[in-house]
Amino acid sequence: MKQPKVTVVDVARAAGVSKSTVSLVLQGSSLVNEATRARVGAVIRELGYVYNRSAANLRQSKSKIVGIVVNDLTNSFFAELAVGMDMVVQSAGYIQFMANSAENADRQAEVIASMREHGMAGLILSPARGTTAADLRPLVDSGIPVVLVARNVPGLKVSSVVSDGHAGAAAAVQHLIDLGHRRIAFLGGFNDTAVFDERMRGYRDAMHEAGLNGSDELVFSSAPSRAGGVAAVERLLSTADRPTAALCFNDAVAFGACDGLRSARIEPGVDFGVIGFDDVIEAKTAVPALTTVSVDPQGMGRRAAQLLLKQINSGDFEHEALVASVRLVVRESCGAAQRMKREAVTA
Amino acid sequence: MKQPKVTVVDVARAAGVSKSTVSLVLQGSSLVNEATRARVGAVIRELGYVYNRSAANLRQSKSKIVGIVVNDLTNSFFAELAVGMDMVVQSAGYIQFMANSAENADRQAEVIASMREHGMAGLILSPARGTTAADLRPLVDSGIPVVLVARNVPGLKVSSVVSDGHAGAAAAVQHLIDLGHRRIAFLGGFNDTAVFDERMRGYRDAMHEAGLNGSDELVFSSAPSRAGGVAAVERLLSTADRPTAALCFNDAVAFGACDGLRSARIEPGVDFGVIGFDDVIEAKTAVPALTTVSVDPQGMGRRAAQLLLKQINSGDFEHEALVASVRLVVRESCGAAQRMKREAVTA
DNA sequence: TTGACAGTTTGGAACGTTCCAATTATTGGA
DNA sequence: TCCAATAATTGGAACGTTCCAAACTGTCAA
């Protein structure tokens, strides 16, 4: 079955033209006669010719490949992010190397190196935990555009698209305060990441502004996963002066928190307010529906990809830092619905 | 910042050897003298030389690239599948083009064509709905190994890795029967897919074997999503002779079914038995924990990737059809836990 | 001293494309 | 009829690598 591979020269011979003409046809040049174009096109289809891009960009050294490296494809937030990038990359006629670093910086370095050898035109990176500016410096210095997404790498001057964690966290806390909560916890996440820092500062600032205590005894860090959420809320429940609501590092943690609360016969959204972060797809349909800070990961992915393509095409080295705005989506888990019901009865 | 790009010739000049020697060093050939190897290695690091794989495999025409096309990365089952493939592909020193077809066959065709132009050595495809054998024939005929995963394409002779939907569905139904259910529904999924067919046959066969009615009035098809599950269970609840349990097409549908049941004040796992399919990550931690047929998507992904790499390396055209075995994971949503409690009380 | 041999190194052709400069064919105006 | 201009086509060099056959070095036995 193995075809002996047909090249532009074979096509040329079969169509009775030179390889240069075939090349012109391939690039849709307006220089070539309509009849010739048609004839060559027919031969191409007939012979089953497949364009060899490697050979092409060996000559012109500008590939239509971008690299996408994501820290955890298993997390639906990042999966959505990837899907968003995929959409715009694909529509722009590019194709992507895509790899999952699984939060492993070494593996991340390996795949980036490999992508570089294969001639990628640019990279979108959602960096693994522990990625340093030094890891990426050689790549950046070589003039390949890099866009960081979702997480930043301190000290690295490249473009980035991140969500406004500070504003989101602050809005969420404010909402809980409006609902009457006074002891509000911060649940989940590792405190060595920039994202954690930012959301945490939003939480603290909002607490302070309302004259409330946002001290360390109210923060329960944990793995940013569902299991981590369960663990964190268990610790929370065993404290003396128990909080009545919590802002969670992300939705996974929030779901875990709900699970943990329920195991303790505390109904999330009724007896305890829970707010997540990210607005993962499941947030809307979960029971109770999760009040959360929506960050539109697909949109972020799209913007990141657009930014990268812009840099690739313009060849400029202006760095842009996009902050995706964020919006609190009030559903059931924070208790807002309950309160409205109470108020209706009182009235 | 833009480096003028250093090639093997530059390295050769700087190290005082010929480009052939540098090439030999690059390939780790044993022909080259230890001292020379060291010197060349040093120069490579010093100049920041980056190997150009496109150029290389232009000459040797065997790339280290595989293509992965998945129908819906947003669904965590397929995301896990992708992660599994990523693992083995990466460890084998390959890199992957990865794209999301979003169930769109045209888009799928486009990305596959693009990957082909970029010189992929093989393809793993989780086909979009509506993919026909004809769509893939040219690729297959050209001698590029293809492995189908999760779904089959009727009439196409290539290797595949699919889960044993028949056995899984039958086991699930048998379990519900053992728990005392007699009217058991089949919920969700589109009836135009091979996967649906297979699970459906497992359901029917198990019902018949037990002398039960598995007729059409008990199957409620819908989109294979959480929302679809909600819709399907609503239809189910409005029927006259209401079933007491349901096997769902997949976990997403099962979660939706639970949501729908709860909205109707029916507690899944207590008043109604629900079983899912796939054992998505969230199944374990959901409330109630989902009884489901576990298919280990990561494992399937790994096996698919191994199969593809084997075919690439051996160049053979033996087609293997792997059926991933499947196992019922009994948790809470089917009511088994409840029954055990009852029995304990009775005893 | 020569030849055989192993251990190293090397020049140049080849891979499939693009691009440039040059060539040929066609047209229209003077 | 001839020239200029335009339209279409073309050969060959170049891109960065690998591979082959050939060449060079040194060692050792004859």
Instruction: Name the average pLDDT of chain A.
Output: 93
Q: What's the CATH first level of the largest domain in chain A?
A: Alpha Beta
Tally of alpha and pi helices of chain A: 14
Distance between the termini of chain A: 80 Å
Helix fraction of chain A, binned, reads 40-55%
> Which structural class do you get from the secondary structure elements of chain A?
alpha/beta
Low-confidence stretches of chain A: none
Largest interface, with counts of residues having CB < 8 Å to the other chain, equals:
A-B, 61 and 61 residues
At the fourth level of CATH, the homologous superfamily of the largest domain in chain A is: Response regulator
CATH architecture of the largest domain in chain A: 3-Layer(aba) Sandwich
Strand content of chain A: 5-15%
Give the CA-based shape of chain A: elongated
Strands ordered across the widest β-sheet of chain A: 2-1-3-4-5-11
Write down the Rg of chain A: 26 Å
- The count of domains of chain A is 3
Give the topology string of chain A: H per helix, E per strand: HHHHEHEHEHEEHEHEHEHEHEHEEH
Output the CATH topology of the largest domain in chain A.
Answer: Rossmann fold
